[in-house]
C-alpha cells in the first residue's frame, strides 16, 4: 500500500493494479487481503489477477466482491492427454495427482472457473504457452474452447526453455511459427499480439517500463529521496539512430523480429535517412535459448555506432545486449520522424543523468 501511494505521486495516471504471484495468487490468503486494502483506499484503480485456474471455481465470488474486473487464466491444454505432457503433477485437496488424472482435474477447474468468471461479469484473457512438439498443434482447440466459454482474447506465449527444468531440452518457437498460430486462432478469437515478457514488479506502460525508478522502494523502507537532474549537456546535438519499421513510415516492429533497420542522422532540427541495415539472416531463429541470444548479439553488432535504436518492443536480452554496446534502446510507436524526435529527448535525458 505504501508503494502504491508513492508510485501515484510519480505516475498520477496509474489506472491498473495486477497481482500475479508469488506462486499462484489464489493459493495465498495475502492476495485477498491486498485486494481488499487496494479497493478500500484506491477505489479508482482497476484490479486484475493472473492464475493457473486450479482454485478459480471456489474463488470467483470472492474476487467479484473485491472488485476484480480482469482475469488472466493460463490454460495450456483442453485434452488431458496433452495436459499430462505439460504438467508433472497437481495438488488438489491435500492429494498429489499425476498424469492424465492431474491434467483432467486442472482442466476441469480451469473451464469451470472461466465460465463462472465470465458469468460474474469479469473480462477473461486466456494465456497459452506454446511448446513445440507438445501442445503447439493443440492450441487452436484451446482457442476455440476459450471462445465458447466467453473469454475475450487469447495470448499465445512462447515457451522459454530454462536449464534444470523439464523442458530445458526443447526449443522455443520462432516468431514466424508463433505468428502463423496466432493467425490461425484469430479465426475463432481475438489474439493479443502486443504482449511482452514482464516481471511481477513491472510499473509503467507497455512501451515505457518505469520499474527501475521505484526499485529502491521496498516493504522494508520508504523511498530514500531522489536526485533532480540539473546538468546541461554541451556541444551539438548530432545523433545516429536506427528504427525498426516495416514500411519506413511507422515504428511497428519488435526489435527481435525486424528483418532490417532504417538509419537516420539527426543534426539539430534536420533528420536525414541513411543506408538500411539488413539483419534478416537469423530471422527464423527460436525466440529463446542460446541461438536467440547469439542472434540478438549479432544484430546489436551490426548496429554499433548508433546512439539509440527505436523499436515497438524489446525483450530483456535485447536491452541488455544493446546497452553493453553503448546503444540506448527506446520503445515507441507511431510516425517515424516523431518517434525520432521523442528519442532525441530520451537520449539527452539519459546522458545528462549519467553526467549528474
Can you offer a commentary on this structure?
With 356 residues, this protein is of the alpha/beta class. It folds into two domains: 2-209, Aldolase class I (TIM Barrel); 238-355, Nucleotidyltransferase, domain 5, CATH 3.30.420.130. Helices cover 34% and strands 21% of the residues. Strands 10, 12, 13, 14, 15 and 16 form a six-stranded mixed β-sheet that branches. A five-stranded parallel β-sheet has the order 1-2-3-6-7. Helix 4 (80-86) packs across helix 5. The longest helix has 21 residues, at 99-119. The radius of gyration is 22 Å and the shape is globular. The two termini are 31 Å apart.
Radius of gyration: 22 Å
Query: In percent, how much strand structure appears in the residues?
Result: 15-25%
Summarize the helix and strand pattern as letters.
HEHEHEHEEHEHEHEEEEEEEHEHEEH
The whole-number mean of residue pLDDT values reads: 86
CATH superfamily label of the largest domain: Aldolase class I
Secondary-structure-based class equals alpha/beta
Largest sheet: 6 strands, mixed
CATH topology of the largest domain: TIM Barrel
Helical stretch tally: 10
Count of structural domains? 2
Helix content: 25-40%
* Name of the top-level CATH class of the largest domain: Alpha Beta
CATH architecture of the largest domain: Alpha-Beta Barrel
Q: Alpha-carbon distance between the termini?
A: 31 Å
Tell the overall outline.
Answer: globular
- Strand runs, count: 17
- Low-confidence stretches are 223-236
Amino acid at each position: 500500500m505504501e508503494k502504491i501511494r508513492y508510485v501515484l505521486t510519480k505516475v498520477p495516471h496509474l489506472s491498473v493494479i495486477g497481482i500475479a504471484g508469488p506462486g499462484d495468487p489464489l493459493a495465498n490468503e495475502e492476495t485477498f487481503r491486498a485486494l481488499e486494502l487496494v479497493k478500500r483506499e484506491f477505489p479508482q484503480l482497476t484490479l486484475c489477477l493472473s492464475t493457473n485456474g486450479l482454485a478459480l471455481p471456489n474463488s470467483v465470488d470472492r474476487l467479484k466482491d473485491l472488485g476484480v474486473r480482469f482475469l488472466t487464466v493460463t490454460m495450456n491444454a483442453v485434452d488431458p492427454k496433452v495436459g499430462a505432457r505439460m504438467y508433472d503433477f497437481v495438488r488438489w485437496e491435500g492429494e498429489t495427482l499425476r498424469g492424465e488424472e492431474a491434467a483432467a482435474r486442472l482442466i476441469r477447474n480451469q473451464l469451470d472457473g472461466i465460465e463462472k468468471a465470465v458469468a460474474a461479469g469479469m473480462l477473461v484473457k486466456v494465456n497459452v504457452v506454446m511448446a513445440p512438439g507438445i501442445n503447439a498443434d493443440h492450441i487452436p482447440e484451446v482457442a476455440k474452447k476459450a471462445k465458447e466459454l466467453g473469454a475475450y482474447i487469447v495470448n499465445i506465449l512462447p515457451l522459454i526453455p530454462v536449464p534444470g527444468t523439464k523442458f530445458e531440452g526443447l526449443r522455443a518457437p520462432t516468431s514466424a511459427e508463433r505468428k502463423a498460430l496466432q493467425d490461425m486462432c484469430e479465426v475463432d478469437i481475438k489474439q493479443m499480439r502486443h504482449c511482452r515478457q514482464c516481471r511481477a514488479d513491472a510499473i509503467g506502460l507497455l512501451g515505457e517500463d518505469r520499474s527501475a525508478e521505484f526499485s529502491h522502494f521496498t516493504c522494508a523502507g520508504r523511498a530514500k529521496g531522489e536526485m533532480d537532474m540539473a546538468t546541461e549537456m554541451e556541444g551539438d546535438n548530432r545523433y545516429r539512430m536506427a528504427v525498426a519499421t516495416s514500411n519506413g513510415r511507422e515504428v511497428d516492429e519488435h526489435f527481435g523480429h525486424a528483418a532490417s533497420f532504417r538509419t537516420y542522422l539527426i543534426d539539430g532540427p534536420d533528420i536525414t535517412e541513411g543506408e538500411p541495415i539488413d539483419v534478416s539472416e537469423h530471422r527464423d531463429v527460436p525466440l529463446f535459448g542460446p541461438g536467440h541470444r547469439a542472434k540478438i548479439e549479432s544484430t546489436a553488432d551490426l548496429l554499433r555506432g548508433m546512439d539509440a535504436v527505436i523499436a515497438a518492443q524489446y525483450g530483456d536480452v535485447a536491452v541488455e545486449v544493446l546497452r553493453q554496446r553503448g546503444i540506448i534502446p527506446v520503445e515507441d510507436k507511431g510516425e517515424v520522424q516523431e518517434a525520432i524526435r521523442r528519442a532525441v529527448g530520451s537520449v539527452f535525458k539519459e546522458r545528462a543523468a549519467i553526467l549528474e
